[in-house]
Amino acid sequence: MNPKQRKRLADKKRIAAYLSIHYARAVKDTESRDIFGWFNYWHTHIDWKSRCNRLPETRALVARLTYRLLLVAEKHFAPRQEPFQLFADIDNGDTGSNAVYVHTANPYSPYPCELEAEWGAATPSELAGVMDLAAYEIGQYDKTRYFIRRRESVQIGG
Questions:
Q1: Cis before residue 112, ω within 30 degrees of 0?
Q2: Every domain of the chain and the residues it spans
Q3: Are the beta carbons of 42 and 56 closer than 8 angstroms?
């Protein structure tokens, strides 16, 4: 293995360790939310510091982990009786912008929020083969940015 290959392998291991820690933190942060309170676009990120922007494979990994975090959030908020919105924001150009959001009726902003996007957009390559397209839809709202939300006809847990 030449020095360049060794460095790339070391970079991959370092990024994997970084993402493992930060994904676990995002899950813990999500699961610590009181589901019966109100949320004004509450959100959490996996790659707060945008450290995974350099390589296409690490950007794809953060997108897949953000989708997985959306599934964790759905499971956590499923017992809530009051309506809520749950969605992911994926930015293929800046992994630090990838986040999962929860929004409810609250005293500070309108509910429901309007997610202005071109719904029915093609699945980004980073999420191809990962998403359940029967249950989720993708909306593109910028050249490299997407929303992911559950289709209205599919109930959480159903």
A1: yes
A2: 3-150
A3: no
Q: Which of helix, strand or coil describes residue 115?
A: coil
Q: What is the DSSP letter of 158?
A: -
Task: List the Cα angle 99/54/121 in 5-degree steps.
Answer: 50
Q: Are 74 and 57 in contact (CB under 8 A)?
A: no
Phi and psi at residue 113, in whole multiples of 5°? -80, 150
* pLDDT tens-place string over residues 115-153: 999 999 999 888 988 999 999 999 999 998 999 999 985
pTM: 0.92
Provide the residue type at 110 as one letter: P
Question: Assign residue 129 a region: left if phi > 0, alpha if psi is -120 to 50, beta otherwise?
Answer: left
